[in-house]
């Protein structure tokens, strides 16, 4: 296949790339609206403050919101990269674009649900976003990125959003439960510790599955551990203060980082061994 043939874009491909770009704009608008932009209610104040930094023992500190801007820039980079001939023409990028399109649309829907104080509906939408991001990650992990640029523009946004979204959803589910039950912010230490341990195992499982694509795996880890680190900061230095929950969050985050380091190195070694075997088979043939 020639480069010209590979880069040729059909009208259907052009429409698909345009839809992803439009959906990205909607996602960015929806995310900004959810946090209080465009006349919206600040996120800390919706649903009686259920999503505020001190609402539960699993609520991240206020500074954790800083990653939203980074994810927004990363998603914009994804939209641009998938629209240009390369890497946009690669099969792995096209395969990831459909689930990312759906994730972007659901992100806008999440902002709409939050601003209308439909917290339960926002959790359902969270699950849909994670399913789409997991689908996109599964498409990317099947084959390696062709270049550092592709990995940075495609794998990094998917991984970063997946990791942050997975850990943040745990916090949102906890907030929904506390809001429904009317429990005080410092209630349920044992339950919070159990959830944090389970969250750590979730991060470990995702990191292991994504290890064949190191940029994807490390981006997921950064997003995931970012939430855990700010949960720890909120419990160790903010309110409600609880050292047990704080240190559990730090240990869980450390376990995810360690798993990612070991798994990506092991995956790299396996890849090199397979490449050497293939070269040997070719030489013998």
Features:
single chain, 285 residues, mainly alpha, 10 helices, 78% helix, flat, disordered N terminus
Order of helices and strands: HHHHHHHHHH
**What is the CA-CA span between the terminal residues?**
25 Å
Radius of gyration: 20 Å
Mean pLDDT: 92
Number of domains: 1
Largest sheet: none
Please give the oligomerization state of what you see: single chain
Gross morphology:
flat
**Number of beta strands:** 0
Number of helices: 10
Helix content: over 70%
Strand content: under 5%
Model regions low in confidence, pLDDT < 50 over at least 5 residues:
1-6
Instruction: Provide the structure class.
Output: mainly alpha
Question: Could you walk me through the main structural features you see in this protein, from its secondary elements to its overall organization?
Answer:
The protein has 285 residues and is mostly helical. The protein has one domain. The protein is built from ten helices and no strands. It has helices spanning 3-7, 11-34, 66-83, 85-88, 91-115, 119-141, 148-181, 189-210, 214-237, 243-284. The longest helix has 42 residues, at 243-284. The radius of gyration is 20 Å and the shape is flat. Mean pLDDT is 92; it is low at 1-6.
């Amino acid at each position: 296949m020639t480069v010209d043939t590979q880069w040729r874009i059909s009208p259907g491909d052009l429409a698909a790339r345009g839809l992803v770009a439009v959906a990205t704009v909607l996602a960015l608008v929806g995310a900004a609206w959810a946090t209080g932009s465009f006349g919206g209610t600040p996120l800390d104040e919706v649903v009686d403050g259920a999503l505020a930094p001190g609402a539960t023992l699993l609520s991240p500190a206020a500074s954790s919101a800083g990653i939203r801007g980074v994810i927004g820039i990363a998603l914009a980079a994804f939209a641009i990269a998938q629209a240009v001939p390369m890497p946009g023409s690669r099969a792995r990028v096209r395969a990831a674009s459909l689930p990312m399109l759906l994730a972007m649309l659901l992100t806008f829907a999440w902002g709409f649900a939050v601003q209308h104080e439909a917290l339960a509906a926002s959790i359902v939408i969270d699950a849909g976003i994670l399913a789409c991001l997991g689908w996109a990650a599964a498409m990317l992990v099947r084959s390696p990125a062709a270049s550092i640029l592709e990995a940075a523009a495609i794998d990094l946004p998917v991984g970063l959003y997946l990791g942050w979204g997975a850990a943040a959803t745990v916090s949102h589910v906890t907030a929904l439960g506390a809001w429904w039950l009317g429990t005080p912010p410092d209630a349920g230490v044992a339950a919070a510790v159990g959830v944090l341990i389970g969250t750590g195992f979730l991060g470990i499982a995702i990191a292991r599955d994504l290890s064949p694509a190191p940029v994807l795996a490390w981006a997921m880890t950064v997003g995931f551990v970012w939430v855990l680190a700010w949960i720890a900061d909120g419990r160790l230095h903010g309110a409600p203060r609880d050292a047990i929950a704080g240190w559990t969050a730090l240990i869980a985050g450390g376990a995810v980082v360690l798993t990612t380091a070991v798994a990506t190195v092991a995956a790299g070694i396996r890849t090199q061994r397979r490449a050497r075997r293939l070269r040997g088979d070719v030489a013998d043939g």
